[in-house]
Design a protein that fits this description.
Number of helices: 30
Helix content: over 70%
Length: 703
């Protein structure tokens, strides 16, 4: 039913409510006043940036091949070029990711709200909080890039002394595009609030689309001009980092100073805890996490430590932009999307299904086995659960498999991507814990295989005891000859298994670094996709754009959470919390149990990215004070997060599965997940009680 307010708004602009919902309401969508070009610009730049994955693959893959063939030790300059490409990739993709709603937010309550309430919250987020902070970040980053150019800053990893200022210029450019898209999101929210409905995106005319190239070139030239020697003489160039191009940082400092006498006289540690509490409230309320981290860090940081917060922002940004190990993130993701979109995982599941067709519970075995292999190709839980569900549900339904046990097998298998290497989460977690990625990869192998074995044993034993839970496949699905089945096994199982074994083996045995191994894996997946004869421009574009969206979401969160962590540590709150917990003099197992319980609870509403990047650094001083092995602790965290993903009532895996199996009752999905959550607890206890399960292989490889 249309409310009176909506009707009045529609009447005011001379349209019906339905017409307004179609995006033709004044004044925002007139030819002279609309801002659709912003969304088009974000999409144009984002889709162009997505193709940067290919040169990144070429540079790092060539370096790995060069060293593997023994032609030379390594191409050191490739590391410099590699991080420049990957940093440009995720920075230019940030605006497109925002346009596609790719940034994480806890929307369990948000999605239940009316459109007006959702739009009202977004107006507050963008209009009052995020856009002002992004203007400040743009100001800070412009001076940051200018100083790099003015000093002719060069790279430090390799002897070729390549210029570093183009990379640093990407930071203000990415922020500028993100700021523009935030303005577009604000306008969309205002329109939705007035119309009472979210409006579909209207297409842009060809004339305006053609003008985007000129706009983009003008923006780039303008930003380069601000960082060049031809910059106006009246641009402030103070030695202090707070002397910014537009002077906004000085203005903010003055405002904070004025309000400093009004605000309560809290200690910096107390301000840090207030910041943490405000962050938690905002996340639960449904605020986008990356944007919230930046707002909280700048706001509370300026209150507690003044101008120093600007230095912390640029330091956090450049440290993550130049961390070449993080270039493995887009390459591993690209590897997984290629295997998925080329149909290689479909063929893998089909081959496993045919090989075990006569067994009771054969589809459970096929699902979990395929999930274990797919987990080694991509660490994205949502993609794993969705893909495995799409492949397995039709066969399970036709064969009369038990819904609860089927749902449990699919969701449990899908969560293995968190743990089994080369897990994206472990790549991100390693620098947070201050350990080598190789050690985390090695430590995760046995726990991952143990959990997979527990899943298989449970499903097969239950099917053996009760054949109705998992009968053999119907005879009409067992029509292939043995030679045809052997061919399917040869082409469906061996190629992806060999690819993953070579990729992981090259990393574990020191033949290639983690980032080189990711390049070799992505290159191998590309060859397999070409060999499948399904690779075309559309499929490649889809894989590249999906890679860019996921990478940008993760990397923006890494930068924002690292900034938040630096502020939280600088104000002394992290040390104060660690000292308080240590002074409680709890037994180390009780303390470890409390930490894992906290992570388990956080794993209900949150994905692994904010937990690993926000809360693990906060808890790390406690871990260090108690002397826990960081590699062992990292695996315990990973297994705990897996358990949370399978734990009702929030369990994110349930919603991924429900999306591809709408005919399955959510109660049945929860019932199946709960069974496998018990197996997760058994696996966690094994790793907790017997640390060598995780630590033996890393010690062997390191020695």
């Amino acid at each position: 039913m249309t409310s009176t307010t909506d009707a009045e708004v529609a009447a005011r602009y001379g349209v019906t409510v339905d017409e307004e919902a179609e995006g033709i309401a004044e004044p925002w969508n007139t030819d002279g006043g609309n801002i659709r070009w912003i969304a088009a610009l974000s999409e144009w730049v984002g889709k162009a940036a997505a193709w940067l994955t290919l040169p990144l693959l070429a540079v790092l893959g060539g370096s790995a091949l060069w060293r593997t063939l023994g032609i030379g030790n390594s191409i050191v300059w490739a590391q410099d070029v590699g991080y420049m490409i990957y940093a440009t990739h995720f920075l230019l993709g940030a605006a497109y990711t925002l346009k596609r709603s790719g940034h994480i937010r806890t929307d369990f309550e948000y999605r239940k709200w009316s459109t007006k309430r959702q739009a009202g919250m977004d107006i507050v987020i963008y209009g009052l909080l995020f856009i002002p902070v992004m203007i400040l970040a743009l100001d800070v980053s412009l001076e940051f890039a200018y100083k790099s150019f003015d000093q002719r800053e060069t790279t430090i990893l390799s002897p070729w002394d390549g210029p570093l200022w183009p990379l640093k210029a990407m930071l203000p450019l990415g922020i500028f595009l993100w700021l523009l898209q935030s303005i577009s999101e604000l306008v969309k929210s205002v329109r939705a609030y007035r119309a009472g409905a979210w409006e579909p995106e209207a297409p842009l005319s060809k004339r305006r689309t053609g003008a985007l190239a000129a706009i983009a070139v003008a923006v780039v030239i303008g930003l380069v001009g601000l960082t060049g020697e031809w910059a106006p003489d009246d641009v402030p160039r103070g030695e202090d980092p707070s002397d910014q191009v537009f002077g906004l940082a000085d203005l903010i400092s003055s405002v904070v100073g004025v309000f400093g006498g009004i605000l309560p006289d809290f200690s910096t540690e107390t301000i840090g805890f207030l910041m943490l509490g405000a962050l938690f409230v905002a996340i639960v309320a449904g605020f986008p996490i990356a944007q919230t981290l930046l707002v909280m860090s700048f706001g509370f940081g300026a209150w507690a430590i003044g101008d120093t917060v600007f230095n912390l922002f640029t330091l956090s940004a450049i440290n993550n932009m130049t961390n070449v190990q993080l270039a493995a993130v887009p390459l591993f993701i690209f590897m997984g999307y290629l295997l998925e979109q080329a149909g290689l995982m479909d063929r893998l599941f089909r081959a496993l299904q045919l090989a075990m067709a006569n067994l009771r519970g054969s589809l459970y075995l096929a699902v979990i086995s395929a999930a274990t292999i797919f987990a080694a190709a991509t660490g994205i839980v949502g993609a794993s659960v969705t893909l495995i569900g799409l492949m397995a549900i039709p066969s399970m339904t036709r064969s009369g498999y038990d819904t609860k046990l089927s749902a449990g097998a699919i969701t449990a298998g899908g969560t293995l991507g968190i743990l089994i290497p080369p897990s994206i989460m472990l790549v991100v977690m390693a620098p947070v814990l201050g350990v080598n990625v190789l050690e985390l990869f090695a430590a995760a192998i046995f726990p991952g295989l143990i959990l997979s074995g527990l899943y298989i044993a449970y499903a097969m034993v239950r099917s053996w005891k009760n054949p109705e839970l998992g009968p053999p496949l119907p005879k009409d699905e067992q029509t292939l000859s043995r030679s045809e089945i052997a061919k399917e096994i040869l082409l469906g199982i061996i190629p992806p298994t060999v690819l993953i074994a070579v990729t992981l083996g090259s990393i574990l045995f020191g033949i290639a670094t983690t980032v080189e191994g990711s390049a070799l894996g992505a290159f191998g997946a590309l060859l397999l996709a070409i060999g499948s004869r399904r690779l075309d421009v559309a499929l490649m574009r889809g894989a590249l754009e999906s890679t860019m969206l996921t990478t940008s979401m993760i990397m923006i969160l890494i930068v924002a959470s690292d900034f938040f962590g630096r502020v939280f540590s600088r104000v002394g709150s992290a040390s104060a919390m660690a000292n308080t917990l240590v002074e409680m003099q709890l037994h180390f197992l009780i303390m470890l149990g409390l930490i894992l319980l906290l992570i388990f609870v956080l794993g209900w509403p949150l994905e692994w990215v904010p937990i690993v990047l926000i809360f693990i650094p906060i808890l790390l001083p406690v871990v260090e004070e108690f002397g826990f092995d960081k590699v062992w602790f990292g695996i315990l965290v990973a297994v705990t997060l897996q358990t949370a993903w399978l734990s009702p009532p929030v369990a994110l895996s349930a919603y991924f599965l429900k999306g591809v199996a709408p005919h399955w009752d959510l109660k049945d999905i929860y019932g199946g997940m709960f069974q496998f959550m018990g197996l997760q607890v058994v696996g966690l206890i094994i790793v907790l009680a017997f640390p060598p399960v995780a630590l033996w292989l890393p010690s062997v490889l390191v020695s």
